[in-house]
């Protein structure tokens, strides 16, 4: 059996679809299933078992010999939450227990880290282990992810294989429940449908034009393909970036969303909210040599093609993957 935590969430549920398509029949999903907004993400999926997040560590000792792999995708991902206690409980405490269980029962593990660990990028976007202690994330979410990475790298006992995947800006189907934290593509689509316009954050730095802020946007279908590769190939354990390696502007993103709807762009700029303005990343771009050196040869979907698929085949129909 394969265990996926955060299974009812955005990336977790898309990963389950990918595993099912590849013929994996015994998938155990772990999450807080009381949150009804995520229910559609698992509808119609054939699953071996559903285990509440709070009961997982009671369930695992009875079933550990049946588990062949764990994907720990579950986390609190709200970058506007500034109560560090929330992240210490879920992103640190719970993750440490998952790691320790995988060590005890000798189960391979892939877990979700984040490009938020890189902060403003003063040390670059290299997934080298020697810079992890120097990184300065801009918000408690990024801090929690980096603190877990640091803790992992300090452990003498490890699972038989492990990888911490530093997700960059992931977008795609099944993020309907994420509210403010959903991708800019999701919000742009809804703004266009409601007002005919897209509103983007104005730049508050002289070295970036309005809409010229750059991010490494990666389609969720590419993300889950890489996650499956890590499970199947199990290269050298460690931290790995997971982006496209090509930064694009928010203006490009908005223009591609209009194009997917066969509309001419109509973009206006608004001030970045004061509560996140000094925590805002103006540039991210994954350095992808480590993943390539590990043997991953797949192409990454272009921003235009990814948005076209997402808008036309999912958002336009309110469909799930």
TrEMBL record:
GO terms for molecular function: ADP-glyceromanno-heptose 6-epimerase activity; NADP binding. Substrate binds at residues 169, 180, 187, 201-204, 215, 280. It comes from the Bacteria. Keywords: Carbohydrate metabolism, Isomerase, NADP. InterPro entries: Epimerase_deHydtase, Heptose_epim, NAD(P)-bd_dom_sf. It catalyses: ADP-D-glycero-beta-D-manno-heptose = ADP-L-glycero-beta-D-manno-heptose. Gene3D superfamilies: NAD(P)-binding Rossmann-like Domain, UDP-galactose 4-epimerase, domain 1. NADP(+) binds at residues 10-11, 31-32, 38, 53, 73-77, 145, 170, 178. Contains a large N-terminal NADP-binding domain, and a smaller C-terminal substrate-binding domain. This is ADP-L-glycero-D-manno-heptose-6-epimerase. It comes from Lentimicrobium saccharophilum. The gene is hldD.
């Amino acid at each position: 059996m394969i265990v996926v935590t955060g299974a009812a969430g955005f990336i977790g549920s898309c990963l389950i679809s990918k595993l099912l398509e590849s013929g994996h029949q015994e998938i155990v999903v772990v999450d807080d299933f009381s949150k009804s907004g995520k229910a559609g993400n698992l509808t119609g999926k054939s699953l071996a078992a559903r285990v509440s997040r709070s009961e997982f560590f009671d369930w695992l000792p009875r079933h550990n010999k049946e588990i062949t792999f764990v994907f720990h995708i579950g986390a609190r991902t709200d970058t506007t939450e500034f109560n560090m206690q929330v992240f210490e409980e879920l992103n640190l405490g719970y993750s440490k227990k998952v790691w320790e269980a995988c060590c005890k029962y000798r189960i391979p593990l892939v877990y979700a880290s984040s490009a938020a660990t890189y902060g403003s990028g003063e040390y670059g976007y290299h997934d080298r282990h020697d810079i992890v202690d120097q990184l300065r994330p801009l918000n408690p979410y990024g801090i929690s992810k980096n603190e877990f990475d640091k803790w992992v790298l300090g452990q003498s006992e490890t699972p038989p294989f492990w990888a911490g995947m530093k997700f960059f800006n992931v977008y795609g189907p099944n993020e309907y429940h994420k509210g403010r934290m959903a991708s800019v593509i999701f919000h742009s689509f809804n703004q266009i449908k409601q007002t005919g316009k897209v509103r983007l954050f104005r730049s508050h730095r002289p070295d970036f034009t309005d809409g010229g802020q750059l991010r490494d946007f990666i389609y969720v279908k590419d993300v889950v393909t890489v996650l499956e590769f890590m499970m199947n190939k199990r290269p050298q354990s460690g931290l790995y970036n997971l982006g496209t390696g090509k930064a694009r502007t928010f203006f490009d993103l908005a223009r591609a969303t209009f194009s997917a709807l066969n509309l001419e762009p109509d973009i206006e700029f608004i001030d970045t909210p004061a509560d996140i303005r000094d925590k805002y990343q103006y540039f991210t771009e994954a350095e992808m040599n480590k993943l390539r050196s590990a043997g991953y040869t797949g192409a990454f979907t272009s921003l235009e093609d990814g948005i076209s698929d997402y808008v036309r085949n999912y958002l336009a129909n309110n469909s799930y993957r």
